[in-house]
Amino acid sequence: MLIEGTILGLILGKVRGGKFSSLGDVQINGWIVLILALLLQLTPIISEDFPFFAKYQSYIYATSIILTMICICMNLKKKGMWAFFIGILLNLIVIAFNGFQMPISFSALKAAGLESMINAIQSGDMMHYRALTGVAQWAKLLAKFVPIPKPYPLPKVISIGDIFITLGLILFIMGEMKKSKFNVRHRMIKHGYKGRI
């Protein structure tokens, strides 16, 4: 839902009088941690050539989520970050209690037209997902069970946590677009002045 959240954030931010140029002044604390988390998310692409990544794919996936949470904690004062934090925490909880795998509804995948994903999960090609079979009832509520089917151009199955994450992204982009360059520069000057004391 990151693509959808980004697009909606940009549209709503502009409608509410924000400026695209303000996004060039975005400052993220711990951005290196976030980049590392994103790189870990890409390891399934190279897992066939590197058996290590294939063997520990579920743990690598969980680690990327934890790193993302660390980065979010470093930026909680920014608009939307609390929604981001709640969403990622919900996803992390259900993953941690299910062998570091995200439970996903196969019936929801079929409804979304993603039967190929079911085959990939059953064959072990997508090791960070598992079926809802045998999952505790409370965990099913946090699993990916909400289908977004075609004709939507990006069909998928999402969780409650994903919804919070998308909301957080929308609010974050809107908040950053509404910030004026004067406020950003004033904050930078203020920090710089404190650093010289």
Automatic annotation (TrEMBL):
<dbReference type="InterPro" id="IPR035168">
    <property type="entry name" value="DUF5317"/>
</dbReference>
<feature type="transmembrane region" description="Helical">
    <location>
        <begin position="157"/>
        <end position="175"/>
    </location>
</feature>
<keyword id="KW-1133">Transmembrane helix</keyword>
<feature type="transmembrane region" description="Helical">
    <location>
        <begin position="83"/>
        <end position="100"/>
    </location>
</feature>
<feature type="transmembrane region" description="Helical">
    <location>
        <begin position="28"/>
        <end position="46"/>
    </location>
</feature>
<keyword id="KW-0472">Membrane</keyword>
<keyword id="KW-0812">Transmembrane</keyword>
<dbReference type="Pfam" id="PF17248">
    <property type="entry name" value="DUF5317"/>
</dbReference>
<feature type="transmembrane region" description="Helical">
    <location>
        <begin position="58"/>
        <end position="76"/>
    </location>
</feature>
<protein>
    <recommendedName>
        <fullName>DUF5317 domain-containing protein</fullName>
    </recommendedName>
</protein>
